[in-house]
Structures
1.
Amino acid sequence: DIEDYVGTLLAMRELDVSIVHGGHFPSFGKVRYRQLIDEYVAGKRKAGCHLQGG
């Protein structure tokens, strides 16, 4: 369910990543990683969206 999914994302947000390799798009670092999670959780983007912005 969505509450579990959001809880998992918030737990993942705390991982001390240095680089993320998404597979279909360029790799990115910790700041972008956390930004994507924050934007999704805030309802500004759909899961898997690669577009910039909200």
2.
Amino acid sequence: MKEVVEALAEVVERAREEFDKKDASREEALRLCREVTRNSAKAIKHAHRGEWEEAEGTLKAAGEFLAHVKRILKPYPELLYSGFVQDAEREYSEAALTLSLVRGKSPPTPEELGVEVTSYLNGLAEAMGELRRHVVDKLRAGLPPQECEPLISLMDEVYYLLVGLDYPEAMLQGLRRRVDILRGLIEKTRSDVASAAMQRELEEHLRRIRREAEESGKEPGA
């Protein structure tokens, strides 16, 4: 009996050592994933402010943190695919795609970013929300509404690309819900642009009336 217990104790001790290493790797990976998320959010914030150099720098930092996560968790695939890494990949993808799309550049591929394709597609869906914010910011800054149409058309195209992915939720990891939200964002953005166009036309009409009134009130020969 003693030999049996000793043999089992040895197995448990080896397991404890393995669990300790795995748990340490998990804690470090979680910390790094938080850095990925934080830097991705900062990159988007810089992008909306037009601070492109800062945006690129923080995006690069996010990518480096994510690559470190992959190296740490490579021996533990059950942790690598447990969910929190995919969340970080989604945030990083969203930031990278936002930086490209608001400037009209070709988007990076999942392979170039080093992320799973499902994380990439979920990030793409969420990046459309950032495009909406970009449109609204431009309207507030006085951009002619018609100049926002290319971005809205892009949002439309992305919606139709994603809505056709009819697969189980276990494979899509929340994509269907994000696509449903995207449809509403597009309609809301179109409404905002239409309202801005009407407001612009009204202001121009009032300026024209005021100008005509001022001109008609002038003395002949004045």
3.
Amino acid sequence: MVKKQIQIQDHVLLLKHKKLDDKALEGLLNKYNISPKQLPKVYKKDPALREIEDVKAGDIIEIERDSPTANKTKFYRVVVDG
């Protein structure tokens, strides 16, 4: 029996993920006066990160979700090995 490969990036419940560039990262850290160590973590092997090129430990991922009250909200995770 052949297992069917699921295209997770097309799933309706998957939130939009993108890797922050250096300029956006600097702005984020300055805006909230935080360091990357203070951000929640996401594993490098997380299926949602498969489609993002060159993801490595230490990268910051911006995740965007719909909100009934704020239209769209963004939250951030730091990539860790695992």
4.
Amino acid sequence: VVPYQGRLFFKQYIPQKIQNYGVKLFKLCSDNGYSWNIRIYAEKEKVTGSASVPTNIVINLSKDLLNSGRIIIADNFYTSLDLTNILLENQIHYIGTLRSNRRGNPKEIVNKKLKKGEVFGLENERGVCVMKWRDKRDVHILSAKHTTETVDVQRRNGAVKKPQAIIEYNEGESSINRFVRSNV
């Protein structure tokens, strides 16, 4: 949300944000924070076809990148198996955190009980991997680029095994956070 106090018919009120009132933006950024494409939220999105509203937003923002072999990283509002399959058909890899209650999630992943540091994942025939990793809490992640491969990450308390997909997701999310901090 870009803060704005004036009069606009598409001004949004989002109580969870620090700046409650403003213009809601959907943004596609490069890894260094450069804005590739921006969409202003002006009215309720219409669902076209069988794709959900978040899926349509990502597809519309990334239509100039189709067939480029790039990677899109997004949070759990946008992430779904349907979106990942659509992007893979257009040679775009996708990495994103996944809501545990999202329709279409594999039940084996959601219901699996893990101990701290454990990873469990399933991969389909197209190479899309849905995994669950337990740190302080369960983290669900979907990746069209990674497997359940883990890497040792150094922390204060010692080394921890962390999935490569989560490491790359965290690096990618920092670029959009740079934009958010600069606009507050």
